[in-house]
Amino acid sequence: MTSTNPALARDIDGKAISAKVLDEVREEVQVLARQQIYPALAVLLVGEDPASEVYVRNKLLRAKEVGIRSLEYRLPEIASQNDVLQLIAQLNADVTVNGILVQLPLPAHIDEAAVIHAIDPIKDVDGFHRENVGGLVQGIEVLTPCTPSGCMRLLQETCGDLSGLHAVVIGRSNIVGKPMATLLLQADCSVSVVHSRSVDAPTLCRMADIVVVAVGRPQMIDASWLKPGAVVIDVGINRITTASGTRLVGDVDYASARTVASAITPVPGGVGPMTIAYLLKNTLVASQLQRGVRTRHSMPL
Ligand code: GUN
Q1: Which of these, 34, 41, 73, 93, is most buried using a 10 Å CB contact count?
Q2: Strands 245-249 and 238-242: what pairing?
Q3: Is 99 helix (H, G, I), strand (E, B) or coil?
Q4: Is 42 close to ligand 1, i.e. is its CB under 6 Å away?
């Protein structure tokens, strides 16, 4: 029997896959506890950005669930850059703190780069320090940005081996686009990065087996950008106002894209939960590296 309804893409279940990652982290935390090693994560929030408050609360909750000790630090909106740098120096020196996360964005009067580079790279669980960025590009095992790591896990669980696939990353931020492209390259994909100055971005995107979108524009990518059967990872989380109130949408027009793609991450419930899971994984790895129970390995040059 033929169907008049074309098949819709299946959802990539970030909640289920992140639960698997959290289980893996919990198990390894228990192994460390038997050696009297207790990973701890310090989270610093400056000011009262409501979205950041929600993210920080979720990070602290999930940490507790896997047995990672968390320390919450708060500074007022008017805190000086020096106040932030002093706290980071104190946390760098504290051997009981394994991971340091400064929630971004920071208030406009604070230089974000100065703060990121003040964090000891071995405690930089965001993977934003230039030493970790450089290591990632060279294929050394370093602390790697959480959202791209989470996206890679979603892709591996969905596609298996990624070798030889053509991946298009839309967006070139330091937090997502650039590290994502690097990780895909390390997984032996052919990688294109499409951005606001790209000529005919939809045509480039239609060549992709894998599309990762991180542009911060609600529902920008629809079916017309996709090759039939493409796997779509939507990093965007945007709140839009509709006739019936507000709702969260991604950078991809989900209803349209799923008529062409073979698999797609929903928003919410796709990439979001993976970011926190990989933050906790990074905290675990940081504590293992600091205590010498894990050694770095390198990719072949
Ligand atoms: N704000 C939005 N995303 C992130 C992230 O991945 N890390 C930090 N520190 N702040 C963020």
Answers
A1: 41
A2: antiparallel
A3: strand
A4: no
The per-residue pLDDT for 177 is 98
CATH of the domain at 226: 3.40.50.720
- Ligand 1 atom nearest to CA at 279: 6
Assign 235 a pLDDT band (cuts: 50, 70, 90). Answer: very high
* Number of domains the chain contains: 2
Banded pLDDT at 296 (limits 50, 70, 90): confident
More confident residue, 159 or 4: 159
Structure tokens at 261: 């793609």
Asked if 248 and 202 sit in the same domain, the reply is yes
10 located within any domain: no
Domain CATH number, residue 82: 3.40.50.10860
Q: Which of 124, 126, 234, 251 is catalytic?
A: 126
81 part of the active site = no
Q: Which of 45, 56, 103, 116 to mutate to test the pocket of ligand 1 (most atoms within 8 A of CB)?
A: 103
The answer as to whether 224 is a domain residue is yes
Q: Are residues 168 and 204 in contact, defined by beta-carbon separation less than 8 angstroms?
A: yes
pTM: 0.95
Cβ of 237 closer than 6 Å to ligand 1, yes or no, is: no
